[in-house]
Amino acid sequence: MRIIIPTCDKYRNILEANKYTMDKSGGADLDVTVLGYKTPDFEMGSWKFVSLGNDTGSENFSNDLIPFFKDFNDEYFIYGNDDMVVTNKFNNEFLNEIIETIKNIPNFGRMWLTQTPANFYGGCSSIKNFGNYYIGEINQWAEYRLSLQYSIWKTSYFKKYLTPNTNPWQWETRDSAKYDGAAILLPVNNFVVSAGHIMKKNVLVNNWYKSIYGEAQLNDDDINIVKNIFNKHNIK
């Protein structure tokens, strides 16, 4: 399954830290496409890069994605984040369980792949139990049904909300996704990927090497390697 990571010129070289940790945790089999503007200043390896033209700011987030997704016809894809390091080994077994589950949900729209407590977004109901963990569905009235955190999307559902003149913050907080009938899912007591934020408001996060919910972190060797990547790109 393809992983699509949108980025911007400001964050294009943060991606090298992202790539290092993703390659290590997910292996060379990951099918990653970066959607950006200027080509990143590092070796992309097996990752693909698609330029969306000139970076005219976040207000054109959706406008810039529309041409790419017009011809994108995969049934599902994974939306990834550019400003993160991956802090765990990809849980491919759980990802496969998710894929097999959503194939049988006609109204599936999106599912978080990161750890998400069951009481988030107004609580959820279990739709597939695996014993020690389960896949839950959040309420139709819940906030952030269109979250841009690491998720698997049904492409047709993503395109439904790929409307012009929408920045990332507007995208996530739209009320139009409430009561739209789509099944928005989250993992409970399990996750496919954990990630730590690198930057917030253009400043390096102190604990960037720790995942958002504290369930994993990079080891000392990887921390030092990523620090060297930051120094290379003057990320402070």
Structure description:
The structure is a single chain. By secondary structure, the chain is α/β, with parallel strands linked by helices. 25% of the residues lie in helices and 23% in strands. The chain contains six helices and 13 strands. It has helices at residues 15-26, 61-70, 92-102, 155-160, 168-173, 220-232, and strands spanning 2-6, 31-36, 48-51, 76-79, 84-86, 108-112, 124-129, 134-138, 151-154, 183-188, 195-197, 199-200, 203-204. The strands form three sheets. It has a nine-stranded mixed beta sheet with strand order 3-2-1-4-9-6-10-8-7. Strands 5-11 form a two-stranded antiparallel ribbon. It has a two-stranded antiparallel sheet with strand order 12-13. Helix 1 links the parallel strand 1 (2-6) and strand 2. Helix 1 runs antiparallel to helix 6.
SSE arrangement:
Blueprint: E1 2-6, H1 15-26, E2 31-36, E3 48-51, H2 61-70, E4 76-79, E5 84-86, H3 92-102, E6 108-112, E7 124-129, E8 134-138, E9 151-154, H4 155-160, H5 168-173, E10 183-188, E11 195-197, E12 199-200, E13 203-204, H6 220-232
Parallel strand pairs: 1-2, 1-4, 2-3, 6-10
Antiparallel strand pairs: 4-9, 5-11, 6-9, 7-8, 8-10, 12-13
Helix pairs in contact: 1-6
